[in-house]
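hiii, so i know i said id send this last week but things got crazy w the move. better late than never?? heres the sequnce for the chain we talked about at the cafe, plus the structure i predicted for it. fair warning i was half asleep when i ran it
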Amino acid sequence: AGLINELLEAQEAHTLSKLEGRLMKQELIILDEVGFVPFSQRGAQMLFAFISQKYLRGSLIVTSNLAFAGWTEVFGDPRLTSALLDRLTHRCHILEFAGESYRFRQSLQRQTASSELSKS
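okay and structure toks below
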């Protein structure tokens, strides 16, 4: 959501080309937790435009807890989602992890350790 907000704000301030130029110079852009927060239609279009420009000019790392089938709900438009996924998966490596969240596991470990200390 942070990048989308930056893109939307830059568009409103008429500084979008400057921001995009700066972002295009980066060798790697990381989009973390895509789908955690749904986008507005305009935000989804802005992210699509950015990814369309960037995916052949540098590296993108995209993380999400959603399967690709769930991305339409986030982006709101099946055609836009399909085109976006086409670009993202064109030249990529998909790493899929199964199992419980490592954050959840660490939280349980801390709680267990804390309760064991309080029993002592």
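btw Residues 102-119 form the longest helix (18 residues). thought thatd interest u
miss u guys!!
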